[in-house]
Amino acid sequence: MAAELHLVIGAGPVGTSVAHRLARDGRRVRLVTRSGSGPEHPLIQRVAADASDSAALAVLAKRATVIYNCANPGSYPQWKRVWPPLAASILRAAESSGAVLVTLGNLYGYGPVTVPMTRDMPLRPTDPKGALRARMWEEALASHEAGRVRATEARASDYIGPTAPARSSVLAFYANATLADRMAWVFADPDQPHSWTAVNDIAATLITLGADRRAWGSPWLVPSSAPVSTRDVLSQLARIAGAGEPRLRRIPRGLLHTAGFFVPTMRELRSVLYQFDAPFAVDASATTDTFGLTASPWRKVLARTAPIWRERALVSRTA
Questions:
Q1: Alpha-carbon gap, residue 59 to 93, rounded angstroms
Q2: Predicted TM-score of the model (pTM)
Q3: Which residue, 48, 67, 100, 275, is most buried by CB atoms nearer than 10 A?
Q4: How far apart are CA 14 and CA 68, in angstroms?
Q5: Helices 13-24 and 199-211, axial angle in degrees (round to 10)
Q6: Beta strands in the chain (DSSP E)
Q7: Which among 55, 60, 3 has a CA at the least distance from the CA of 33?
Q8: CA-to-CA distance for 139 and 6, rounded, in angstroms?
Q9: Neighbours of 142 (CB within 10 A)
Q10: What percent of the chain has pLDDT over 90?
Q11: Is the pLDDT of residue 1 over 60?
């Protein structure tokens, strides 16, 4: 009997980690990206295709057991245009194939919070990106409740990990400066406690949710770190990597507002900075209690991340 087929959409840090883990466990993986890029492995078939082409994706999804939506449409200004047809195409592919749909989500849909986020907290987005992500989940959930698909979602906080690109989170962006011993200009308060999510923990959660029927029909939070301020994380990374103590300077909010008139990404960024202006904590105890998943030990995450981010920062400094 042929090994079950898993369809992974997107070869960013999470999609790549999911594909690697599945292949390592002997699962066949079909990895779909626009360019056909991705990791090389005998069990990973890399396919160049536009996942928003519903007819093409439906063909690729045939006989798939699970579809993992790890797509990343690019910069914030592209979300409004790219996400709706892409999400709709992936949902239709799951419906037509009978595969479980596991979506990589984020925490934008909760909006500003005053307590740690839980999976049962109502979605109350205050910006268009959060509203878009909330609508994507609501559409998948409606299809699930109608019996057309089995759907679930893993919601992660800002990424940390050796494979997280420099622009995958504000932390990685700042570290690209501080680990090269340069000043980092920060967009919000660097001393507010914040939960961070290891890329490998996101991948492990996605795979678990796809295989366990208890997950279907609900969102789940990815186990993440205890809240640590941006400044403290950068200091810890610097000590491990042998870099100097981070130097941070906050960009005045008025200047960010003005920049938003000329730089679309900056305008979009402003609307989610509430995540760093106050404590932003994840309570994933429901995920841990149900599936036994826990966040990777913080010291190990830092030890694996620091030297890779340091090397990347030094290369970018001399580029």
A1: 8
A2: 0.96
A3: 67
A4: 10
A5: 60
A6: 5-9, 28-33, 44-48, 64-69, 100-106, 150-156, 158-160, 184-186, 193-194, 196-198, 219-221, 228-229, 248-250
A7: 60
A8: 22
A9: 13
A10: 87
A11: no
